[in-house]
Design brief:
The protein is α/β, with parallel strands linked by helices. It contains ten helices and ten strands. It folds into two domains: 169 residues, P-loop containing nucleotide triphosphate hydrolases (Rossmann fold), CATH 3.40.50.300; 77 residues, no CATH class. Helix 3 packs across helix 5 and helix 3 packs parallel to helix 6.
């Protein structure tokens, strides 16, 4: 197994002369739960957008390491759907579901990057196409069961309670079969019971060997869930380490947690 699942070297992004990310280095290990924290405007979501192809880095490298691929795969310059195919999936700070589609249909859309049906096969509805469609439904339903959404399978996604919508977005990301899952403020707006359920789900996902990097302002969640924490401020990494190390780091206290 590779030592890392993701390596970021010298990542920089500028918007009209403003340096949103400045020579950022970061490395994630397989199966690790890590957090990226920092003040509002520090560049956290910009970092996620660079990793997933929504923004183009001006400098630096983003290397994903699939199992047994010691050379790694560069994600720089790839389109978002190509990055998803390589094994990197994400959720968003603001929920982005297909509100007028069912819960099951939302998950099936996530399976699209793993389907192999051709246009001709879809038109002719041959045996291979029908089998693949059945596999997509079965795998999608299994993911919904795992995240406690099976009873809502035929409901419209927009009708779900807020916490369930958050879980559905994670479920759709899991449907892409990621090696690395990026969660952008997954606990935002959740009550304490929903947050506890979310933490259990994240731990179960990581136990399956999927690496997780999350942006989160709930410090209780971050400190109790994550093995390592990266802290950025004004687009620069100012600290990294275990929760205990970060909690006592004077630079972090000054920049983020308060004096």
């Amino acid at each position: 197994m590779n030592e890392y699942i993701l390596k970021i070297n010298g990542l920089s992004v500028s918007f009209g002369g403003i340096r949103a990310l400045d020579s950022l280095d970061l490395a994630l290990r397989p199966g690790e739960i890590a957090a990226l924290i920092g003040p509002n405007g520090a560049g956290k979501t910009t970092f996620f957008n660079c990793l997933t192809g929504l923004y183009a880095p001006s400098e630096g490298e983003i290397i994903l390491f699939p199992e047994k691929d010691v050379e790694g795969v560069s994600l720089k310059g790839l389109k978002p759907h190509q990055i998803t195919e390589k094994g990197l999936a994400r959720t968003f700070q603001n929920i982005r579901l297909f509100a007028q589609m069912t819960v099951l249909e939302n998950i099936m859309i996530g399976r699209h990057c793993r389907s192999r049906t051709s246009v001709l096969g879809a038109l002719l509805r041959n045996a291979a196409t029908r089998k693949e469609e059945q596999d997509i439904v079965e795998k999608s339903y299994a993911i919904l069961e795992r995240l406690g959404l099976a009873l809502s399978v035929n409901e419209l996604a927009g009708n779900l309670p807020y916490g369930a919508q958050r879980r559905l977005e994670i479920a759709r990301a899991l449907a892409t079969e990621p090696l690395l899952l990026l969660l952008d403020e997954p606990a935002a707006g959740m009550n304490p019971q929903e947050t506890m359920q979310l933490m259990e789900i994240i731990e179960e996902i990581a136990a399956d060997g999927i690496s997780i990097l999350l942006i989160e302002h709930d410090m209780k969640l971050v400190m109790s869930l994550c093995q390592r924490i990266f802290v950025i401020d004004y687009g620069q990494k100012i600290a990294q380490g275990t929760p205990a190390q970060i909690r006592s780091n004077p630079d972090v206290i000054r920049a983020y947690l308060g004096e």
